[in-house]
Amino acid sequence: MVTQPPTHETQRARDGQPLLPAQPVHGAQVVGRIALLLRLVGRNPSGTPLTEIVRDSGLTRPTVHRLLTSLAAEGLLDHDAVRHTWHYGPEIFVMGTVTAARYPIEELARPSLVRLAEETGESAFLSIRRGAETVCLLREEGSFPIRSFVLHEGVRFPLGVASAGLAILAYLPEPEVDALLVDTEAFAARWGGQHSPASIRANLERTRVTGYAVNPGLILEGSWGMGAAIFDRSGRPGWALSLTGIEPRFKPERQRVLGQLLLEEASRISQTLQRPPIA
């Protein structure tokens, strides 16, 4: 999968000594690091510990702590001193509220999520593509008492991991798919051999045949998901609807029913998005 090039801080030999002399960080590099840290903090609504942010950012602990503290001083982040976790701050809420009017996808998708949850009993979700990842935006709980908690608002997965990412990846141009499916040791260590490029490609082929993606417990054993892509005005997949639940609820005969419901709701939203804007 897509990986970021190592920075001067992360280029170290096995003995821990830097391979390159430390360089001051300016301009675009600082912006990139701040954006990365904001994304990492937002992955978990219950808060993200510093150790996890350091691990996944590839930056040194002092650098991460300095940037997080600066963001907190501006109101973009909050620090829970009791749980030692980092959270989005009030300024993020203000920005999101101001921005929401420009991106009506949540308003369009909410009725579809409600219908899916009511008709199936499973939890329904809306995810958006952001670069090489999907981010869960909305959730509607189903009535079935046993649920899967792999997916929740704010969680991010690489494209090709989880049903929403598979549904989107299946309808991207082949050169774009090739660029995203880069085999790396770090990716295999994080997501396992079941998410090798060959395995993902096989699932993409199945998705193109049925129109919907199936994640047969690849992230967490026994936790299944299905997804269908939503297309923007240019015909590109930018979002996905998905359903998650436990394996017994996703037997082959029921997959066809769930898949058809997902496709119908995804098509409904796509058609709305593709209507010409009112002059």
TrEMBL record:
Keyword DNA-binding recorded: yes
One Pfam family linked to the record: IclR_C
Residues in HTH iclR-type domain copies: 28-90
Region: Disordered, residue numbers: 1-22
Single GO MF descriptor: DNA-binding transcription factor activity
Top-level taxon of origin: Bacteria
InterPro entries: GAF-like_dom_sf, HTH_MetabolicPath_Reg, Tscrpt_reg_IclR_C, Tscrpt_reg_IclR_N, WH-like_DNA-bd_sf, WH_DNA-bd_sf
IclR-ED domain segment(s): 91-275
GO BP: any one term: negative regulation of DNA-templated transcription
Keyword vocabulary terms for this entry: DNA-binding, Transcription, Transcription regulation
Record Gene3D superfamilies: 3.30.450.40, Winged helix-like DNA-binding domain superfamily/Winged helix DNA-binding domain
Full protein name: IclR family transcriptional regulator
